[in-house]
Amino acid sequence: MHFDATFFAFVGLLLFFVLIAYLKVPGMIGKSLDARAAKISDELAEAKRLREEAQHLLAEYQRKRKEAEAEAAGIVAAAEREAAALTAEARQKTEEFVARRNALTEQKIKQAEAEAIQVVRAAAVDLAIAAAEKVVAAKADSNVQNNLFQSAVGEVKARLN
Fold this sequence. Notes:
Layout: H1 5-22, H2 25-139, H3 142-160
């Protein structure tokens, strides 16, 4: 029998397969592939869990954002109501202030009118007294003047007492 290189290559290949089977390389490769598949499966499960957690956090943050927006809208509405109330109060106080000022001014004007009338009356009385003195002095002699003076002094004394 003549063995050529093909035969020896075939025998080497068979020995190689027997050696691989003896050393349980397919089992080790299987275990390695199973371990890698399990690791990948665990990583996928972890990724899925992280994704669900991220979605949950996203939903929570969106809910919190909506609550914050609603709260901000409430604060803005309250501030607008407060500003409107302050504006109305300021307008009312301004109107009251103007009304008080007008009343005070009118009162001062009436007082000034009354004082002016009193001054005019006093001036008229003084003028009338001066004119009466001149008329009485021109018409009355000294005897009549003394009687008038004595009666005026008597009236003043009577009124003072």
